[in-house]
Amino acid sequence: MVAVEWVTEEDEYVPPFSEETQKMAKEELREDKNTRDQALEQIRNWIKMNPRIENCRLDGQFLLRFLRCKKFNVPMTQEAIERYLLLRQVYHPAFNHLDIAEPNMDELLSLGYLFAVPGRDIKGRRVIVARPGVFDPYKYTNADMCKIHAITYESLMEDEESQIRGFVHFADGAGVSFPHLTLFTPKEAVRIVKNGERTIPMRHKEVHAINAHPSLKFALDFGMSLISEKIKKRVKIYTSLEDAVNNKMDTSLLPKEYGGTMPMKEMIELWRKELIDLRPKLLSHDKMKVRLELYSEKAREGAVSALKQGLNCSSLGSSDSIHGISGSFRKLEVD
Fold first, then answer.
1. How far apart (Å, rounded) are the C-alpha atoms in residues 115 and 151?
2. What is the DSSP letter of 287?
3. Full-prediction pTM beyond 0.90?
4. Cβ neighbours of residue 49 closer than 8 Å, sequence gap 6 or more
5. Could you give the CA distance from residue 87 to residue 202 in angstroms, rounded to a whole number?
6. What is the per-residue pLDDT across 79-102, written as a single tens digit (0 to 9) for each?
């Protein structure tokens, strides 16, 4: 049997953060040295023995993002890792080759479609700014939209302080119109949101949105119906920036255009440097693979119910055609 060359090998994990953050990890996530060491050993052994997983990262920094998000519940972590690996593959056009240097990704970043601001808030959390209205639905595809989100979130998840402290989201809905809503079918939207919340190991602590146009209320209501009650309670929607400020939303870390001190253009350039530094690591994720023929057709299509049922194996042989979500990305040619 040929030895697998893993994307990253096992390492001797040492926490890179302060005692204060370690205390928070213990209180909120049940993390201490003993729990962490045992869980990492269990997860690594499970990956190596799992016939469906062909390749994966084995370093602590990567595996702990899932363990922390699942509060060190090992079975739930195993499901999240396998779901993550499978969905990266079936959504191939949107979640592989996460390269910020690609022209469309570079343009979307320069427009300020999605970026993390420098520094941290008073609770030590990174703040993510989204401006969906600058996304041209006639120029860019739904795969472009998914990919810039994947680049942003994958990069942020590499930071262990953020894995523990979580994230704050700020969205400006100005400019969003009906064509934006037709980028995804309702079925695609459901699968992306549901799988995303279960699979992307981010702790979403606060979500603030301004300028949500009343004509799109039905779409907003639909989107809110897809997220969990826990996240729903953390969402605050304001009619305008003034309304948000009047309701005590903290604008100090936001771009100058939204009440902060640093111009948006400067923030975007600082974020670009972070992304460029992490580019090799994100590109190495393309080596992570599962054996698609060992999953049910529903699981390969990203059906939430199939993935919840223990990622059922399929009796289909590898000669069968693989029907996946990747086929549903419109206006996109796949090599």
1. 10
2. G
3. no
4. none
5. 16
6. 999 999 998 998 888 899 999 999
